[in-house]
Amino acid sequence: MRRTHLAIATATALLALTGSWLCPAAYAEHGKGDGDKPGFVCVIEVGGDHNTDACGSISYGDNATTGQGNQVGVGGVIAPVCGTWSATGSLTDARENATATRLLDGRVLVVGGFGQGRLLASAEVYDPRTGIWSPAGSLATPRAEATATLLPNGKVLIAGGGNGTSGVLATAELFDPLTGTWSATGSMTEARENATATLLPDNRVLVAGGEAVIQLEIQPTASAEIYDPATGTWTATGSMTIPRESGTTSLLPNGQVLAAAGLTTLGPTASSELYDPATGTWTATGTLTTARSQHTATLLPDHHVLVAGGQSASSAELASSELYDPVTGTWTATGALTTARSQHTATPLPGNKVLVAGGQSGNGALASSELYDPQQHTWSPTGPLLNARDNATATLLANGNVLTTGGFGTQSLLTTTELYKHC
């Protein structure tokens, strides 16, 4: 980290001098000044990255002090502390059930979703270096509850989703971050929303399950299909053993894909199954200890899959979580969440822990967050979100921090976005 030593007369003077400082966050640390003069180290954090260019021409003073050497925020904003959330730039459009994808250059692309009284075609891109969102073109077709997959060539594949006027969608579109434009690609063999998408080791994309139009009704489907980025076409592959939507899929280290739980025509299921790309077939594997939907699934460094929360058959939020062992094909219960929740986010952090944030409880959207420790098999509270939200997105940034965007708050859709400081 580059540092510029600055002495400021007082903490109050620091705030006054930098009232127009165009940085999301900055702080002063007690340090050594010029000669015998006490001083500060000025550290600017822009979108979670360290930068000192904005320190500008603030000059040394004679009687600099930090009081007790505490961090002093520019404009009254305290620098992010480990394990806490801080505000960053706001979205142009309030949205929920959107997609969020970290691009190869570290920026984050957010696409579509439900807006205020309408479905959204708009896309926005977040730059962690500036903390600012910028327009990223628009989809040809507005959609929510679609899938998003980062392809090896850097493009982003958006597939399916729901559209208020034409129902469930089969169309797919590609975003090119180099040009900031969208283009059509091949349509899926079956229109679907609330499906899962998994990038396979051979660079193809598996889309499975979701809701489709079956016998003139939208209901869970068992069908699956493969997108080939080399040809831009979709082909049907083996169907799952049961129809499911609002479930999860996880790519295992052996190249197989684990589909876990989800919603069937009879309610949440506890079943899980494995897809083998070599044969194009699904086979049943171990049964979860608890049937659930609208949960999260996270691949851990030890190759186990952590499933957390969700809704039960009685539509109650779950606190239970469990682990899938790919060697034995079995599920075992692990520590329970401190707060029961569904429609939350789960993000694997550097250092093995998993961050779960927000979601829905019986009393509405949640602000609470918690960390899972895979070594202790326990959950512990961490800093709460500034805004309670469900159906939001969460994206791990290159610097190890987590960006959460949009969602539905306590009363309305949100434009706000936040950064979780991981240390």
Descriptive notes:
This protein has 423 residues and is mainly beta. It has four domains: 4-73, no CATH class; 81-135 and 344-423, no CATH class; 139-239, Lipocalin (Beta Barrel); 246-336. The strands form twelve sheets. Strands 1, 2, 3, 4 and 5 form a five-stranded antiparallel β-sheet that branches. A four-stranded antiparallel β-sheet has the order 6-41-40-39, with no helix packed on it. Strand 23 (248-251) and strand 24 (257-260) form a beta hairpin. Residues 1-77 have low confidence and may be disordered.
Brief summary of the model shown:
With about 425 residues, the chain is mainly beta. Helices cover about 0% and strands about 40% of the residues.
Structural class: mainly beta
Number of strands: 41
Poorly predicted spans: 1-77
Largest sheet: 5 strands, antiparallel
Cα separation of the termini: 15 Å
Helix content: under 10%
Overall, the morphology is: globular
Number of helices: 1
Overall average pLDDT: 85
Radius of gyration: 23 Å
| Domain module count | 4
- DSSP strand (E) fraction? 35-45%
Task: Map the helices and strands.
Blueprint (H helix, E strand, L loop, with lengths): L3 E3 L4 H7 L7 E8 L5 E9 L2 E3 L20 E2 L11 E4 L10 E4 L5 E4 L10 E6 L4 E7 L8 E4 L5 E4 L2 E2 L3 E2 L3 E5 L4 E5 L10 E4 L5 E4 L2 E4 L2 E4 L3 E5 L4 E5 L10 E4 L5 E4 L2 E2 L2 E2 L3 E5 L4 E5 L10 E4 L5 E4 L12 E5 L4 E5 L10 E4 L5 E4 L2 E2 L2 E2 L3 E5 L4 E5 L10 E4 L5 E4 L11 E4 L3
